């Protein structure tokens, strides 16, 4: 234990297998956004997923292995990358000087000579690193609230073939409580549904895709994840133009429960009612099956096994087109009790549809079946 200036008590914690110096008060359940030097112990799973994803990505990447952590707080993510993945040069940055100092001190106690820490504004930092040969193999943008103001500089600082990871914590905006703000920040309209988290992720991806298109690069999402506090997307950046349209709408029918992804706005294809419209947003795949398989092969004993359980679901759902359903909502439309996920999935597969659990909801399933086919499976259990 020691004291940083202004009598901040500093303690050493271990996350993953990395020693991290953090202000003691960050462990006291105070809202992290109220703290001057940022560290959120509850974000350990978020960082665990990063370790798995970055490690899988770095193995296949040809070129200089640089990780740019643009809003690093006390440097937890970058320190873990430097210590747990190895052979990656970490360049960490935060606007808070004392957080940066702590990160540097943590790098010393972990004997890391591949960790550099800067104290700059994130857009300045990323712009400095947007020149050729200075870009990142991986760039992380992990702000308070919306990442929208960092999308341009995040993309510019990512190498061709590199990975941009981005977090959003402005859940109320993305869930449709502040629609106008969402249109302004993410270029699309959200709607409130049982699968609002998938719409939120697709809105984030849609806005990154549109900015990327303006900058003449393209994105491919390879992994997404969320919990109650954040959404996080991992997209591969390529400087090849993409002529396929990846932007459209999620159409939701309040009358029959039908939902579909479409390039155009239209009435419900099941009951011809008017649909509620979310978007424009990303309408293509959320996961790259091969990449998820590589993530599953990254066996880190010190990482919570729950991450691997989530990844198994990502793998199963990776090639299924469409947004997910939940057992509860179908049961409530049909006035019956929810079915077990295994019963629904088996029932749909038996009539030749693709079906799997979804990583985005414990009670959710993803399928290419239409709502009436799902009803049929439920009704066969009455
Ligand atoms: C959510 S925290 C980052 C958490 C960190 N990535 C982790 O995994 O623990 C956001 C950080 O951004 C920093 N920050 C806020 N505005 C900034 C800006 N414009 N430029 C650089 N850093 C900024 C804050 O000081 C804070 O440490
Ligand atoms: Zn309908």
CATH class identity of the domain at 2-239: Alpha Beta
Unreliable runs: none
Ligand inventory? S-adenosylmethionine, zinc ion
Proper CATH architecture of the domain at 2-239: 3-Layer(aba) Sandwich
The SSE order reads EEEHEHEHEHEHEHHHEEEEEHHEHHEEH
Could you give me the name of the CATH homologous superfamily of the domain at 2-239? Vaccinia Virus protein VP39
The proportion of residues forming helix, as a percent range, comes to 25-40%
Q: What is the name of the CATH topology of the domain at 2-239? A: Rossmann fold
Count of distinct strands: 16
**Major β-sheet profile:** 7 strands, mixed
Q: Which structural class best describes the helix and strand composition?
A: alpha/beta
Strand line-up of the largest beta sheet = 6-5-4-7-8-10-9
**Number of continuous helical runs:** 13
Shape: globular
Please state the CA-atom Rg, rounded to the nearest Å.
Answer: 22 Å
Strand-residue fraction? 15-25%
């Amino acid at each position: 234990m020691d004291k940083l200036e202004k009598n901040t008590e500093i303690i050493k914690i271990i996350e993953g297998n990395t020693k991290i110096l953090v202000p003691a008060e960050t462990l006291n359940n105070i809202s992290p956004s109220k703290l001057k030097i940022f560290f959120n112990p509850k974000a350990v799973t978020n960082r665990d997923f990063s370790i798995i994803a970055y490690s899988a990505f770095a193995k296949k990447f040809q070129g200089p292995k640089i990780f740019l952590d643009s809003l690093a707080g006390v440097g937890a993510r970058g320190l873990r990358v430097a210590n747990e993945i190895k052979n990656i040069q970490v360049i960490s940055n935060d606007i808070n000087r004392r957080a940066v100092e702590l990160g540097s001190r943590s790098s010393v106690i972990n004997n890391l000579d591949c960790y550099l820490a800067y104290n700059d504004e994130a857009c300045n930092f990323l712009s400095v690193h947007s020149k050729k040969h200075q870009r990142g193999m991986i760039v992380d943008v992990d702000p308070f609230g919306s990442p929208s103001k960092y999308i341009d500089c995040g993309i510019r600082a990512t190498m061709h073939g590199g990975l941009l990871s981005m977090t959003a914590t402005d859940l109320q905006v993305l869930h449709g409580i502040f629609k106008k703000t969402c249109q302004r920040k993410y270029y699309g309209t959200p709607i409130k549904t049982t699968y609002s988290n998938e719409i939120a992720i697709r809105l984030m991806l849609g806005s990154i895709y549109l900015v990327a298109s303006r900058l003449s690069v393209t994105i491919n999402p390879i992994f997404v994840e969320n919990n109650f506090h954040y959404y996080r997307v991992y997209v591969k950046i390529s400087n090849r133009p993409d002529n396929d349209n990846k932007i459209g709408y999620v159409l939701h029918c309040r009358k029959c429960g039908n939902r579909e992804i479409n390039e155009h706005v239209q009435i419900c294809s099941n009951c011809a009612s008017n649909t509620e419209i979310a978007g424009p947003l990303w309408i293509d795949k959320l996961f790259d099956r091969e990449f998820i398989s590589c993530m599953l092969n990254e066996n880190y004993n010190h990482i919570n096994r729950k991450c691997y359980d989530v990844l198994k679901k990502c793998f199963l759902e990776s090639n299924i087109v469409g947004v997910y359903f939940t057992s509860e909502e179908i049961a409530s439309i049909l006035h019956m009790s929810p079915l077990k996920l295994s019963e629904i999935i088996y029932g749909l597969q038996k009539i030749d549809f693709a079906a799997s659990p979804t990583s985005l909801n414990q009670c959710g399933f993803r399928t290419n079946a239409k709502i009436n086919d799902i009803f049929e499976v439920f009704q066969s259990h009455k």
